[in-house]
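Exercise 7. Given the components listed, write out the predicted structure of the assembled complex. Treat all entries as one system.
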Amino acid sequence: MILAATSSEVARIFLELGAVILGLAVLARVSDRLEVSPIPLYLIAGLAFGQGGIVELDVSEDFVELAAEIGVILLLFTLGLEYSAEELRTSLRRGAPVGGVDIVLNATPGALAGWLLGFGAKETLLLAGITYISSSGIVSKVLRDFEWLGNRETPSVLTTLVLEDLVMALYLPIASAILLGDGAAKAVLAIAVALTILVLVLFGALRYGEILSRLVSARSDEALLLGVVGLTLLVAGLAQEVNISAAVGAFLVGIALSGPVQQRTTVLVNPLRDLFAALFFLFFGLRIDPSDVVGALLPAAMLAGVTGATKVATGAWAAGRDGVGTRGRLRAGTALVARGEFSIVIAGLGASAGVDSDLGPLAAAYVLMLAAAGPLAARYADRRPRIVPQ
Amino acid sequence: MSEVRETDLPGVGTRYDFRTDHGTNVSVLVHRTGRREIYVYDRDDPDRCQSVLTLTAQDTLTLVELLGASRVTAHLAAMQQQLEDLTIDWIDVSAQSRWVGRTLEEAAVHTRTGVSVVAILRGADTLSAPGAQTQILAGDRLVAIGRPDGVAQLDRELSEPVS
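Answer.
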């Protein structure tokens, strides 16, 4: 595509892209200064410069769209990379009840809201996922920034995140099978195929992950980076081909990598992910008309209020199980409130499958609120005046 | 020596806690990257801690040197005098051993041989009183206490390839 373009077109593409990425850089800087997550800022930028925005930016859509797709794949890959197979297993053994409570408390409000808003079955399923999944990016930033890593409630918070990870591995293929399949019978078949492949791959990844890690392992960072990214894209493509969604494929590769390779890959891939994920959030905003978001503000605020509270309850309950005191429980709950990248990934899945166009603006407004409110709530929980016993 | 509790932090590393003789709760967070942080807990809110020190791998070595790494050995020597019919041995783990990568619990060291692993010397680190979930890695030096035949059996299992 770019090869065929004339030199003046190339110049235009570079100018646009450069301006866009510089704009994102400014936003990242602002978010760092304000100590907030950059995700809401990227979304707002997308809204402001997309269709119906203040200025309609005519960026090279093809390139940004491809970059956004790669962003999703890298987001899920690094999510899988974050936890070793062993950690997934232990968390599942120790925290299964927490995972269950998390689903019931946080996916139900989303599903109910979908029903109340008159959404179809597909949109309702997606909305349940959007309200369920916490932003592991924002949560771990909160834990680090507030120096909560050593706190006694932190293992409960991390276990909850790990379990949400596992639930995503099941949810994404089911959701994509339902989105892509038409008709109930076909959808059931698609789900069955998707789950079978998922279980096989997950089992293989846990069992033979070490061999895979050894295969991609290389002394030079360059060779390792290229090997890992190539493998991830390849598996993502294969997964898409059999309708389990490219993101899940990438996620599974992330899980399969273990040991020293896992550490080095994280360091190498993170900058790449940051670049492409920023473009993904921007692109998601670009496709949404800001006036629709204004219309979705009220339901989004109500949904954010309810699911913020249910997430606090989830975290508090999980920490309580581990014998943590009242204030620690409050910290665990507020730490988990933030929704972010994965809610947008789920909404993005819907957008590419062409579901009801009301879902995108609602998800954008919802994530804007909770991505900002989560860290604020956590800060409040940390500085809350001490209750002096009588 | 005080009891050390180990907690896994998925995606982050491992936290080790102990209580000092003066009653302060201290924990050391070992990040997967090798970075270490030392935390001290709030007296009013025992779940909340404050970071006291952040150490790189190199800093850790320096600190260990200053605090005296030989404490474990001294501790063990004293024990040997008290328990005459028990043996203390330093067992090197060979890469070929079938227990490499398994936890102490999986290897059922204590139940099968009656031997207690009181410490693991791993590179520059000393894991004192390792928990049941501690993994045995190639190159570890296990400090084991038990009856002579049990210690000999464990030595064979850890230093020889799978038979």
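Discussion: Chain B touches chain A through 21 residues (CB under 8 Å). Residues 71-82 of chain B form the longest helix (12 residues).
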